[in-house]
Amino acid sequence: MDQQQFDSELQTYFLHIKHEIKQEHIEYLKKHPELNQILNDFTSQIILEKPDNVYQYAKEYFSFFNQEKDLKTCKPLVISGASGVGKGTLLQMLFKQYPQQFVFSVSYTTRAPRPGEVHGQHYYFVSKEEFQKEIEKKAFLEYSEVHGNYYGTHLAQVQKVMKQGQVCVIEIDVQGAEKISKSMPNQCNYIFINAPSVEELRKRLTGRGTETEEVIEKRMKNAQKEIEKAHQLGFYNELLNDDLQKTFKKLIDLLKTFYVDLKL
Ligand code: 5GP
């Protein structure tokens, strides 16, 4: 075999090997779609937090995997629904049944506490000035003005719960959920609790006796807008709360599909 022939055969051989390796890579990627998910989640998170030291950030981010927890296990759970729809009661039942798995994200708000509400447990009740300071510190994952008051989700709280391998439950309005869905794409699960009818919602709000007629009217108008918007957004899983016990069961069934590893 002369030199030219040898070079040509070698060339063919390398091309063959290259093709085989490429095929192997493609096969591997097809078998592991989670790789794309992990890289997308990482990129979204890094864009959200903009760390100065990217290497250090990556080291901490991927240390999640050392805890042998799938990232999907701790995707935050975003829950929305009009005032009076029963979200609060359903969540209380959830935390009672699964105190280790789900942790409530305590929002900041500028509204006044209702009777029985505790600072640091239901909300952090702060002044407009204090809320503004947190905005300037870029401490919020999202914040919105709801019914004339400010409400915000604290980013550090959500991250802490995720790092602990627990599900952070973020109870927020629809506009807040939309903001989260943009800043953390594909990184949360979304549930919208709906009432059987608008009349039923008014009855429940009036029955609560904690709000004035004017506030109830404001909340009713807001409720209709929220329901329409939630449908438009399309990322919510909707639950109709017509019967508390049955709805709670449906909620748990849905959560079982979201958080398979939690073994609920
Ligand atoms: P309420 O005053 O009845 O406690 O809450 C009024 C609305 O504000 C509810 O729809 C509730 O889900 C929403 N909300 C509570 N916390 C937050 C938050 O941190 N961010 C946003 N965007 N909405 C919130």
TrEMBL record:
SMART domains: GuKc (SM00072). The keyword Kinase applies. One of its GO terms (molecular function) is GMP kinase activity. InterPro entries: DD_CATIP, GK/Ca_channel_bsu, Guanylate_kin-like_dom, Guanylate_kinase, Guanylate_kinase_CS, P-loop_NTPase. SUPFAM superfamilies: Dimerization-anchoring domain of cAMP-dependent PK regulatory subunit, P-loop containing nucleoside triphosphate hydrolases. Residues 74-256 form the Guanylate kinase-like domain. This is guanylate kinase.
